[in-house]
Amino acid sequence: MLETNPNRKIIHIDMDAFYASVEQMDNPELRGKPVAVGGNENRGVVSAASYEARKFGVRSAISGVLAKKNCPELIFVQPRFDRYKEISKKIQAIFYDYTDLVEPLSLDEAYLDVTQNKKGNPSATLLAQEIRLRIFNEVGLTASAGISVNKFVAKIASDFNKPNGQKTVTALEVIPFLEVLPIRKFYGVGKVTTEKMYQLGIFTGLELKNKSEEFLEKHFGKSGKFYFNVVRGIHNSEVKSERVAKSVAAEQTFDSNLSSEIFMLEQLEAIAIILEKRLKKHKISGKTITLKIKYSDFSQQTRSKTLPYFISDKGLLLETVTELLYQERMKDSVRLLGIAMSNLNTEQKKAVAVQLKFDF
C-alpha cells in the first residue's frame, strides 16, 4: 500500500550533460566528440562530461589526469558559468509557463508540481513531453524527465531513459518499481552507504523493505528512518518554489599546490571578499565559519568555529579563518581552499535562492 498522496503529479527535469551540451551547442566543432568541462590533462577536476566522454569512464569529480588517461582523445574546455546561468534562466522561464511550483535544485535540474497546472492538462506525462520539446526547440538542448507522485521517485525515474527520454511511475507502480530497484540507484544512498548495505545483505529495494525500522536506525542512524519510509513510497516533501539557503560558500582550486600559510592567507582573503559580496547581496549573515582544505593527495579536511553573533564582513571572516588555518599544522601541500558560512539568519526571513558554491 502506498502511503503518500496518489493524486500528486511531480515532474523532475534533468538536463542531459548540461555544461558539456552547452559547449557543444555553442561550438559545432565539439559536437559528437568527447568533451570535459573543467580541469586539464595535468591537474584540476572535471565538472561535467559529454556522453561521448562518459563511454570512456570520464565523469564529474574525477581528476583531469585520470580523465585523459581513460580517454586520450578527450577535449578539455574551461567552464563558462555566466553562459550556463543564461541558458538556465531560459529553461526555467519555460517551467513557469506550466506551474509556479518550481523548485530548482541547480542550474540543470528542477522539480515541478503540476498537480494543478496553468495548461489545465491532467496528464503529467504529456506535460513533461511538451516541456522537453519546448526546451529542445527554444533552447537547443535535450532534457530527461521523471514523473511520479513524489519527488523521491520522480528524481530516480528521470535517470532511467537518459539521455533525451522520460519515465512515468504511477501511484500503483511505485512499490513494485522500488522493490526491484538496485539499492545503488536509490536517491540519497551514496557509494559508502551502498557498500554498507551490501555488507548487510541489502541489494534491492525489496531487501531494504524487509528490514525493520529499528534495524535501519541501528546501522544508519537518523537516515534509517528515511530509508524505511522511502522504500514504502512515503515521501511527502512538497515542491518549494523558494529555498532557504543553509550555507553559502566560495572556494578555489590552485594551478600550483600551496605549501606556505602566508600564500594561503592571500588566497583566503580573495575568497573572503567574494563570499562577503554574496552574503551582502542577499542580506545574509551567519555564525558558523568553516575552512575547507583539500590536500595534494585529494584528501579533505574541514575546520569550523561558531561565533556568538552573526557576521558577513570580510574582515571578521578572515580573522576567524586565519585562526582556523593556524589551528594545526598542514599535513601536506594544498590544492584547494574554501570558506563556507552556515548557521544563517534566514530562518525568520523570506526564503532566497542562493548559489551554494562560487566557481572561479
From TrEMBL:
The lineage of its organism: Bacteria, Pseudomonadati, Bacteroidota, Flavobacteriia, Flavobacteriales. GO terms for molecular function: damaged DNA binding; DNA-directed DNA polymerase activity; magnesium ion binding. One of its GO terms (biological process) is DNA-templated DNA replication. It catalyses: DNA(n) + a 2'-deoxyribonucleoside 5'-triphosphate = DNA(n+1) + diphosphate. Binds 2 magnesium ions per subunit. The gene is dinB. Residues 10-190 form the UmuC domain. The active site is at E109. One of its GO terms (cellular component) is cytosol. NCBIfam families: PRK02406.1, PRK14133.1. Mg(2+) binds at D14, D108. InterPro entries: DNA/RNA_pol_sf, DNA_pol_Y-fam_lit_finger_sf, DNA_pol_Y-fam_little_finger, DNA_polymerase-Y, DNApol_IV, PolY_HhH_motif, Rev_trsase/Diguanyl_cyclase, UmuC. This is DNA polymerase IV. It comes from Flavobacterium restrictum. It is found in: Cytoplasm.
